[in-house]
Each structure stands twice: as structure tokens, then as C-alpha cells.
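Milestone M4 deliverable, item 7.
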Amino acid sequence: MTSPLQRTLLKVIVLGDIAVGKTSLITRYVHKKFNQQYKATIGADFVTRELQIDGKLVSLQIWDTAGQERFQSLGPAFFRGADCCVLVYDVNVQKSFEALQTWRDEFIKQTDIPDPNKFPFVIIGNKIDQDAGASRVVKEKRAREWCESIKSGPLGTEIPYYETSAKEDVNVEDAFFNIAKAALSHDRSQELYFESITETGSLSEIVEQQSRGCPC
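Output delivered:
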């Protein structure tokens, strides 16, 4: 019989306005593909990817969201147990950048974090490939200045910032690897022992599992 593997389960929440490319980023990272046809996420779903960080086997559970105001009513059942929050915007849409603060505030309100400045947040500016950059309205310097104005993480450093293209697979792997490292630095999770993990799921399934005492 194969011995159970030792893994650290980390929960990452991805937030941002609708159509900024949250699902495309996650799909590119986990499944190595890009879907040209846009399909809005309904409610919330998660996928997992395993990786090794500093000799540790990590199961990164990435939660994708609808990016709509009505989604916020899901509340604590969704945000509970998060180890890192990723805020995504479209570099071609000013409004999606301006909404980052609102999404950060919503996350903090729903989770009741004792010290938000010590919780790991990561910012992603997506769709840098669009029109070869001609459509861009949010400059990298402006985004980095906003990140510098907000301290985050265990050491109280500025929020990490990455620019990506899910379509062209630019910087996606690097961004999520560092997201995993940020989540691991938070490390509220305990070492879990199990032989396999669910590859995909939905909020309703997780809530049902939690009500039965599942450690997922």
C-alpha cells in the first residue's frame, strides 16, 4: 500500500471585476490552455495544482469568482481559511484598476483579518497583450505606486505586482509561483495527510463538506 503523501493545503482567493481575465489566468496556470470564447463565471469554483516550494509539497487551491456585486453575498463561507488574496485588473480598463481598493476592502471585511497589513495580497495587471499594448490605459508605474502605498504580508512590505497575459502565456507561471510562496508565508494551514485531493469543485460542495467536518 502506498503511504499517504504529506502536503500543505493553501487556499488562494482571486478577486476582481468581471471580464478582467481571472478564469483565463487560472486556466492557463493549471491546465496550460486558453479559451478564446469568453464565458462568465457563475458563483465560485476552485481548481488545484500541486507544486514544490523550498522542499515542501504544496496543494494550491485557487478559488475563482464571478466578479459581480451579487457574488459578495456568499460571504464568510467563501473567504474562510484564505492564505492569500489575489486582486486582478485589466490594464486596458481604468475602472477595473480603480475597483482594486473596493475588492481589497471587501475581502478584509468578510474575513475580519486582525491586521490587514500583514496578510498576503498580490496584484495582477492582466491582458498586456491586447492590441500590442496600444489599448493600455493603466501604466505600470501607476499600478506600482498604488502597491507601494499599501503594505502587505508578514514583513509589512509593499504588495507584490505582476503583469500578465493569459492569452499569450506571459508571466503567468512566475506570478502564481510567487502567489504560492506568499500563501505559504502566511501558513495558517496545518500539514494535511491524504492520498488524493479534489481537482475541481464548487462553493456549494465545499460548504456541504465543511458542515460534515471535512478539513478541505
